[in-house]
Design brief:
Helix content is 55%, strand content 0%. The chain contains 11 helices and no strands. Helix 3 (59-68) runs parallel beside helix 5.
Length: 197
């Protein structure tokens, strides 16, 4: 049993938030629907070994990351720095995944962090403050979808983006437009970095 799986087994004996773990952690035969099993297959030993050698990490870490982050292409040679950072402490990676799931219960967290892996690393500490801003401006039942589609909502200055959109469109409902078209945020951020506003 890998370190992350041992950690999760210990935690769920004392912390209610760990009571419902996804089935792909290999701890249970059943899991609630919002922790649905990803459409991925376990890698054979040869592939696990190949990826471990490629990134210079243990085979246990490869197995943990493949189960925890099925949508992240950890088999890519270009991801070595990222994979090593996530593999350095797979227990923390697992714990942060569960915390993100508790904050955004209807979001597909695997897809979200595949788009923005930094949310499991240095960017994680800023998520609570970002959530407070999102709840100020957007409907609560829309936030999970927004952060899944565009994780930049948890990183960028959303209030500044709303202000830019209001000025650009000469409107006062920039927040409404962002809520219904989350991909607008990327355009706003890109244009701001090009100093168009």
């Amino acid at each position: 049993m890998t370190e992350a799986r041992r950690y999760l087994q210990r935690q769920r004996q004392t912390d209610p938030s760990f009571a419902a773990l996804p089935v792909f952690f290999g701890l249970d035969e059943h899991a609630p629907a919002h922790f649905s099993k990803p459409n991925c297959q376990e890698w054979d030993n040869a592939r696990v070994q190949q990826v471990a050698i490629m990134h210079g990490i243990s085979t246990d870490a490869v197995q943990d990351l493949q189960r925890l982050l099925p949508d992240l292409p950890i088999h890519s040679p270009s991801k070595t720095q990222l994979v090593r950072a996530l593999a350095a402490d797979t227990c923390t990676t697992a714990s942060r995944l569960l915390q993100l799931k508790s904050w955004f219960p209807s979001a597909n967290i695997s897809i979200m962090v595949a788009h923005r892996p930094g949310l499991l690393l240095e960017e994680f500490v800023g998520v609570p403050a970002a959530m407070a801003v999102l709840h100020k401006w957007f409907d609560a039942d829309a936030i999970d979808h927004m952060v899944q589609e565009q994780p930049l909502f948890l990183i960028e200055d959303v209030e500044d983006a709303i202000g830019c959109l209001n000025r650009w469109l000469s409107t006062t409902n920039g927040a409404h437009k962002l809520q219904h078209n989350p991909s607008l945020l990327l355009s706003l951020v890109s244009n701001r970095k090009l100093s168009l506003w």
